Amino acid sequence: MRNTVAIKIDHPERAKGLNRLLYKCPRCGTEGKMEARGVTLSCSTCGKSWYLNEQSHLEGIDDRTEFSEISEWLRWERDIVRERIRNGTYYFEDTVRIETLNNSQEIYKQSEGKLVQTPDGTTLTCYSQPMTVEKPALSLESMHVEYDYLGQGDCVEISGPNENLLCYLTKKDVLTQLSIATEEIYIYANEKREQEMLAILNNNKENENGDNKG
Ligand SMILES: [Zn+2]
C-alpha cells in the first residue's frame, strides 16, 4: 500500500488549460499544437490523445503512455530547452502587441513589437516609439508570465526604462517555454561566469607560483 493521499479530481473539464503547460507533443515533437478539451489532451499534428484520469495521471489513448505524471512531461520539456540553450541552438521570436503601463498600472500606450530570446538574453523591440529593451542573460532570473491575462491573451511583463511593458504573444502556448528558457538562460550564464572567475583565480595563482619560483 502506498502512503500517498490520492486527490481525486472528477471535474468534466479537468484537462482545460493543460496545453499551456504541456505544449510539446512527446510523440511527434511538434510544439504549440496541443489541444485540451474535457478530460483529454491531444496533438492536432499527429492526432495522438491522452486521457487525464481522476488521479491527475495521463494515459495514452490507443497508444503508449510516454509520461503518466504531468511533472515528468514538464521535466522533459525543460531538458530539451536546457540542451538547446547549452548547445547554442535555442532561438525564440514572436510578434507582440505591447501595452505600456503607468505607475497606477493603467494602459496609456499600445504598439507592436518583436520579442526575441536567445541563449544571450531577451530583447524586446518596440516599433512605434522606437525603442529596444535588452535583458542580457544575467539580468533576468525569471520571466513574469500571465496565462490569458484579463481574457486578452497570453502575455509576459518586461520592465522598460521608465515603465512596465505587457507583451501579448501571437504564437500559441509559448509562455511555459519562455518561462523555462529564461530560468535556464540565467542558470547557464551564471555557471559560465563562475567558471570564468575560477579560471582567473587559478591563473593568478599560477602566476604567483611562477613569480615565487623565479
Ligand atoms: Zn504529435
In a few lines, what is going on in this structure?
Helix content is 28%, strand content 29%. The protein has helices spanning 18-21, 70-86, 175-213; strands spanning 34-37, 40-43, 49-52, 58-60, 92-101, 107-118, 121-126, 131-136, 144-146, 155-159, 164-169.
Walk me through the topology:
Layout: H1 18-21, E1 34-37, E2 40-43, E3 49-52, E4 58-60, H2 70-86, E5 92-101, E6 107-118, E7 121-126, E8 131-136, E9 144-146, E10 155-159, E11 164-169, H3 175-213
Antiparallel strand pairs: 1-2, 2-3, 3-4, 5-6, 5-11, 6-7, 7-8, 9-10, 10-11
Give an overview in words.
The protein is α+β, with helices and mostly antiparallel strands and 214 residues long. It has 2 domains: 18-68; 92-190, PH-domain like (Roll). It has helices at 18-21, 70-86, 175-213, and strands spanning 34-37, 40-43, 49-52, 58-60, 92-101, 107-118, 121-126, 131-136, 144-146, 155-159, 164-169. It has a 7-stranded antiparallel sheet with strand order 8-7-6-5-11-10-9, with helices on one face. The chain starts with 17 loop residues before the first helix and ends with a helix. The structure holds zinc ion. Zinc ion binds at residues 25, 27-28, 30, 43, 45-46, 48.
